[in-house]
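To whoever picks this up:

The parser on our side crashed when reading a file containing two proteins. I've narrowed it down to the boundary between the first structure block and the second sequence. Both blocks are reproduced below exactly, byte for byte. First block:
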Amino acid sequence: MIVQDIVDYMEGIAPIELKESYDNVGLMIGNKKDQVKSILFCLDCNLEVINEAKLKCVDMIISHHPLLFKKPSSITTETLQGKKIIELIKADINLYSSHTNLDSVKNGMNDTMIQLLDLNIKDAYIMDKSSSSIEKAGIGRIIELTTWITAKELCYTVKEKFQLKNIRFVGDLNNKITKIALINGSGQDYFELARNLGAQCIITGDTTYHFVSDYKEMGLFIIDVGHFSCEQPLFKIISKNIEDYINLKDPTVKVFFSEVEKEPYEIF
């Protein structure tokens, strides 16, 4: 198996045309003709993960968040981004990233959140449909439940399914909820759309004070799982599906899931 084989498969399940205009996805660093004998999946390609990849003799890293989100004007060891790029090149490690295209696509990050929460739903549809020709793709999902659930019960479910000790929330725990907006990662740019679509609750990560304060006043219940805690379990589920494909095509390729990446925030 070569890098090109991985690229073709990744772009088959999450076409690049589905990425948001501000995003940068695809093969970030590498040679499409390189042989791939081992792959490491991670949410973020940070220095710890790169060191982990080197220790495990990995040929290729597949991350959700792109290292080259903002294209550098120079590549030197004087910047964090430059250090990462140089370390990858020196270690001959290819890097591929699938970001908002993977969020948007059918059976991508958003749909995997529906799967993980495993609520009793009667309908689900896309919040912000993609302008591409690809069907059933777009950012965010609205789910309608078969019967109402209290906000408190929903908080318990989110904590259990995402395996978290605590979550942040805004609103009345006694609220009865039947319609929920799901936006993996940082979703507050879609709050108004979610409200206009009739969502009574939004589950996302990376919310900020003024946004949640305003939407609390408007009556929405908001669950902030945290960016890492929201996306890492979803990406791992998808990564395991990719592993199944790789094992089918070439059983000799070793697949790893990062053991060093973790939630950057800590509670004191």
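<<boundary where parser fails>>
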Amino acid sequence: MLSCFNLPSPFATALILIASAAPAAEPFEAFLETHCVRCHGPEKEKGDLRIDQLSRDFKLGADTHHWAEVIEQVNSGEMPPKKDKEKKPTQAEMAAFVTSLDARIKEGKAARMAARPAVAHYRLSRKEYQNTVYDLLGVRYDPAKPGELNEDTRWHGFERIGSELSLSPSHVDRYYRAAELVLDRAFPVATSESRLVRKTAADLRYNGGKDQQAALDRFGIKRPLRYLLFPGNVQNALSPNWFGKTGPEHSGLYKLRIQASGTRPPGGQTAHLSIGKRTGEETVDGIIEFDITASEDKPQVYEFEVFLEMPAQLDFCVVATDVVDRRAGAAFRNALGSRGGYIFTHSSETLLLNPNAPQMFDDKGNGLFSTVLLDWIEWEGPL
């Protein structure tokens, strides 16, 4: 009697078992093959990117930046492209793919970090040392000054890479000197008596203002003299001789008080006042920065505390979008800067405006530039 079916040969059985045992492509690779490789593969290479050739060895991290770009493009909806006629992945599929790829990138980064050799000597960077000294002792110390701590080695633009922050005999010597300076400031043997100096607009701008005040009296103007600070110029905010004899022993915390107001064009930028060390004819390295929001008729007293290494020379600088150009505005600047050529009290005092001098205000009293109107300044310290 014949059988109604034929048994498979041993060879065919083996092929069937191998086929059934072969796993399907994992979801990560399946997503790439279905939705990515057709535009970034051997047949088409959009954006010079071949996803099929990107390394899957995330521990090595050779193509991590490309994979990060893939995540960004999928999250933004740029990949797969909306105009693609092929079947689009669902939101769930895209979320699963992004989660899987992000996990691979993070695992690879963690593996690379764990494989790094231990740092033999890790020292604080200059900025870290500066912040630590201030947090522990309340002392302001500038490690970037010439002769202080060595400049930190940069690695791809970064200054806080432990393996680059080596410690040499030169570093140790400078750290000892820095420590002595910081401790002397934190625990001075003899404290300097606090001193107060006050300069009015007449003192700063008009050399006492005797002649200018006489002019105001002739016009019957009761408002006080003001110092008009305009953008594109720097003016003295502190001189070492203001306190009399001044040396390093007078370094410490100082209180600054300044009464000022500001003007600006309609819809223009609020005047921003920077006080710091002069770095150019029109710029300073600001240690105090603030906006002058008070109106001309209601000046405001602004108060700050700042650590000063004495003797110190500081300047004002008005920061604004529009400045008085050094060449094109030479006549303008000269008229404003000359000691006797421009007297200012208030934008409404038209009797003081020289018709031959360049103007700072329009016919409605609006400023043509963002300016600062200074009444007086006080420095007090060391506190």
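After patching the parser it read the second block fine. The chain has three domains: 18-115, 126-186, 195-381. Residues 357 and 370 are 18 Å apart (CA to CA).
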